[in-house]
Amino acid sequence: MSHGKRWLAATGALALTVGAVGGAAAQSPAAGEPIKLGMAIHVLGNPFIQQIVDGANAAAQELNVDLQVVGPEGGSPDEQLALIQGLAQSGVQGIVTSVPGATLADPLNEIIDSGIPVVQFNLLDKGVKAPYVGERSVESGRILGAKVIEKLGGDSATGKVIVGNCLPGYPVLENRQAGVLEALAAAPGLTMVGPFDVKTSATENYAAWEAAYTANPDAVALIGLCAPDIASLGQLQAANPDTLFVSGGYDLTAENLAAIKSGNAYVSLGQTPFMQGYLPVKILVDSINAGTQADLQAGGFIDSGTEIVTIDSVQEPFELPAMTFEDLEVIAGDPAAARAYYQPLVDGRIANWKEFVEPIENEGL
Question: What are the DSSP calls for 283-322, one per residue?
């Protein structure tokens, strides 16, 4: 059996009723046998989510795990839930999942109550009886808003700022939005336009931003809350070279870094996707192997950190080694390079994760 196996299931596969999960309690592996874990992502094909999967695969290879990765193509929470239930029924001993909506909480808790531990990453619901690994979402929004204001000239800045949210209603993204708006309030002359639903697919995302900008051609800044935005905003700026605007957004994909490098986008915030992938696998392995006395059903929050990147500066969390923009470009496209860079994180916060568990409420501070 290969370790770190990736199984990307199409939407609708392995759909089960929640009731079928009962009795599928996780069992400790026999000596030397790999632990069988499932990982459910909220959308296939997203470069940022793939960086998280790369981190999980690295953990699987190093921690004797057979990892099955599933997810819907279109980002449907219902289809993701069906895939999660399929993982539970297939006999996995633990599940790593994003939680893109409150409707998943009760079904996930039933899986947890059946004896299969769960760890959340990237998107959470506080009603799920499982810990969460992700950014401090409101604070990251404050940071992003402050960086945009700084580029616009500080608290005296004036003009329209367009805000886009690819998944309105998702708690983490709503928290980012709240942080951005809080930061923008420091410059009373700025007027927020939106937030607009800018969709998740690259094509729809660009079209939504183009429409918003066409309706507000005098906007001085455009801020996106999701992974596709910076690439789209860079493309939009390139198509409108005579009307400059400041672009801010999230995630350090190769596409987003290219937009920053070209000068068509200003700032993007990362959320350490390697940690969001590696650490949940580590938590489950520790729990299944009785390496920790932590009660995973008690929940809790572990901060994955915020990365702040412009063409002139790369700020990494947790006292990680300094790197240049060029170094970051390599890491964004090479899972092996990312694994090597994050060794201090694996040896420190990830190995000692129990010391860094906070109340779940701290995620939104």
Answer: HHHHHHTT-----GGG--EEE---EEEETTEEE-STTPPP
Tens digits of per-residue pLDDT, 257-273?
Answer: 999 999 999 999 999 99
Residue with tokens 């400790």: 28
Domains of the chain: 18-135+273-304+335-364 (3.40.50.2300), 137-270 (3.40.50.2300)
The mean pLDDT value for 210-222 works out to: 98
Q: Using an 8 Å Cβ cutoff, are 335 and 54 in contact? A: yes
Q: Quick one: which of 13, 59, 32 has its CA closest to 276?
A: 59
Burial of 217-228, coded b for 16+ CB within 10 Å and e otherwise, reads eebbbbbbbbbb
Contact 211/203 with Cβ under 8 angstroms? no
Question: How many other CB atoms are there within 10 angstroms of residue 105's CB atom?
Answer: 17
* Structure-token match 């002139």, residue found: 312
CB 228 within 8 A of CB 200: yes
Q: What's the chain's length in residues?
A: 365
113: tokens are 């109550």
Burial of 88 (0-12, 13-18, 19+ CB in 10 A): buried
Instruction: Kindly give the pairing relationship between strand 132-134 and strand 118-121.
Output: parallel
Q: Each residue of 243-278: b (16+ CB within 10 Å) or e? A: eebbbbbbbbbbbbbbbbeeebbbbbbbbbbbbbbb
pLDDT in tens, 92-137: 999 999 999 899 999 999 999 999 999 999 999 999 999 999 999 9
Residue 29: per-residue pLDDT: 59
How many C-beta neighbours within 10 Å does residue 148 have?
26
All residues at 6 or more sequence positions from 281 whose CB lies less than 8 Å from its CB, including other chains: 37, 39, 56, 59, 60, 63, 65, 67, 96
What's the confidence (pLDDT) of residue 229? 98
Rounded Cα distance between 191 and 308, Å, is 24
**What would you measure as the largest C-alpha separation in the chain, in angstroms?**
65
- Indicate the pLDDT class of residue 19, thresholds 50, 70 and 90: very low
